Amino acid sequence: MNIFNYIEKYKNISFEKEKFNEIDNLIFSLLIYLDFNNIISNNKESITLYEAASIFFSKYTYKDVKKIGISPKEAYNVLKEIYISERYSSVVLSNYIYIGDRNKQFSALTYEFNKCKYIAFEGTDELLSGWKEDFMMAYIYPVTSQSYAINYLRKAISIFDKEVYVGGHSKGGNLALVSSMNQSFIKRSKIKTIYNNDGPGLRKKQIESKNYKRIKNKYIHIVPDYSYIGILLRDEEYYVVKSNSKDIMSHSMCSWEIINNKLTISELSDFSKITALSILTWLDRHSDKERQMIIDSIFNSLEASGVYYTRDIRKIKSVLSIIENLKNIDDNSKALIIDFLKYNINTIMSNNKEEKNNNL
Questions:
Q1: For residue 154, what are the CA distances in angstroms to 160, 179, 181?
Q2: Which of 54, 132, 143, 260 has the fewest CB atoms found within 10 Å of its own CB?
Q3: Which residue in 329, 288, 333, 340 sits closest to 305, CA to CA?
Q4: In whole angstroms, how far apart are CA 99 and each of 124, 144, 148, 166, 289?
Q5: Is residue 229 over pLDDT 80?
């Protein structure tokens, strides 16, 4: 059973009869990948999910959305299934914001239903700047999108709110965590649950901070058994769920297995355990300045090669020029990049051999 089976079973059961649950969290954190510009207002002027979807489908086809990436494509399919349902059609949407250029990428949306709120933050989209921010989290806090998320959540939570959920997928999950950590006592008290759906964790300093400790009992970090993204940086505990994929597609929430209204519990694969440990070991061996040197070198090379969207990387000429541009970096940066690649590739290859032997 997956997210679409869940929708089929529960789409005509209201939130009054079946309370908001972790699968609804997945649905709301997925829909934010769609472009609602000029459909949902960026202030408190609201629109129902049914109305927003009707306008969206009049503007965009599946073919339009498919070009953008996997998450928008999946979000489109989910929206198609829920927008005329009893459970979701009357959900109220407001405060949609999207900011994206060569330096930053951020998007957020507020849902209101059954006297509750869900504030969703988008993960990385096709802009290279969004992916760079993911890597920048290794050496700087807060990055631009984290600052935007803190301010957005501060405005989104009202003193009249009783039950607030905050969540997101991939980078959006990290934004949900960081934004919730950095709220006043009154606003934190309104938050019931924080969902980080396979997004990066925190740097050591932040995970040891008072701000994190204040919200950790409300925080759920969901990762698939073959996690690649959610294991980045640090976290104290994972809620591991079963995915029907054993590659990067395990990052897709549509691959996560469900029983009724619950995700299927699993355990982290040896691949993810060893990869997570190798990343942490590598991070501990290098200073913030060294991490920045590596990340800046790689992304400067990408930009010099004309890569501004993730789809540009697929072009053979771009890949060749990236390699060529990396030759021009200083020796210290080059040594750090080679060290990073060798350390992680060797670890992953060793792990793959172990898994193959275990399966014989």
A1: 13, 8, 11
A2: 260
A3: 329
A4: 12, 11, 10, 19, 28
A5: yes
